[in-house]
From TrEMBL, chains A, B:
GO terms for molecular function: DNA-binding transcription factor activity; transcription cis-regulatory region binding. This is HTH-type transcriptional regulator BetI. Residues 35-54 bind DNA. The gene is betI_2. Residues 12-72 form the HTH tetR-type domain. Gene3D superfamilies: Tetracycline Repressor, domain 2. Pfam families: TetR_N. It comes from the Bacteria. It comes from Mycolicibacterium chlorophenolicum.
Amino acid sequence: MAQSRKAKAADGGARLRLIEATAKVMRDEGYAAATSRRVATEAGVKQALVYYYFPSMDDLFVEVLRAGAEVSLARMRDALTDDDPLLTLWSLNGESRMTALNTEFMALANHRKVIRVELKAYAERVRDIETAAVAVSLRARGVDPQAFPPVVVSMLIAQTARSLCNESAVGVTLGHDEMRAFVERQLRTLAAVTPGSGR
Amino acid sequence: MAQSRKAKAADGGARLRLIEATAKVMRDEGYAAATSRRVATEAGVKQALVYYYFPSMDDLFVEVLRAGAEVSLARMRDALTDDDPLLTLWSLNGESRMTALNTEFMALANHRKVIRVELKAYAERVRDIETAAVAVSLRARGVDPQAFPPVVVSMLIAQTARSLCNESAVGVTLGHDEMRAFVERQLRTLAAVTPGSGR
DNA sequence: GTCTATATCCCGATAGAC
DNA sequence: GTCTATCGGGATATAGAC
């Protein structure tokens, strides 16, 4: 379990601890606070060790993004195969745990090419998975894919959930109750459609 | 025109230039690059002058946010009174000009209280204006406000437009064409409803 | 694999001349 | 209102001992 991939974990876990420490600092204080000294202290090692494991701070950021992406993608794949995919999509994207970190990477991606490339790849993998699950769900309910393309439905649900999270993070809650009620009403209505009635 | 408010512009425009320079640096290189030295150089003044006009860098950031908010709010008020408010809402929020700066302030707001408070106030003023305009438009078309609350419709349109912008900024365009077609089809359908038919 | 030490540079903020 | 000069500190990254 600690041996995640290849022979990467031949150390005392310092590499992994550095990645986790960096994620924590970015989440709590922003990417600008995630300096080599700061994350080293957080991980319980000395500053120079950061440069033994990562060529530069940008490389460390990329590894943090990659690690988080793998975890998120795995959870998403699991969750979208069972249950009602639409409802699962709504809950998964509404988790506030990853919100702040996502925002940091979004800002970073706007100014650092390596981050941008990595984030784009991740976002498109997520969209593919979510859209596939939504497609199955909509087809089973006989929803016309011309009128409601699966990719549109998956984007609407995911983006709305994430927007509520982002706004909550800065204290904005105006209209949130109404929006949640609306989305959940729509999802219930759709779920009530007799599966196969459209055949 | 250069005399915006009170007697603030008793200088040679240095204060305003500092605000604009800070916005530019934040947009181009991120908030972490907007240091007192960097923005001073960009504005053509010396670093110490920043602290003559602003007590701290955070205060400068707040002023940048305020200035941008005033401009955006004014444009929004103008645009939403004439034309089709729903379509205007869609276009205004789809402008990419402000996207990067908004993302920076979002990230900043997650970790700096003064920014968070200011951004929250701005976001709620925007929502109020947009919702009011949408309410008028929906009522004129006889849309049931129970089934489609104006605040929900305004959030959906605005958030979707902004999400497309944010994604485009990092190179993600998967599903964008479908989403744009979908939204514009919905807006056309709604616009085609004979005004007053619901009376 | 982890450390100490160091080179080189930039940071926010203040004091005080003009 | 704008400047020069400076304090105290932190940044990335490297060299080299253990």
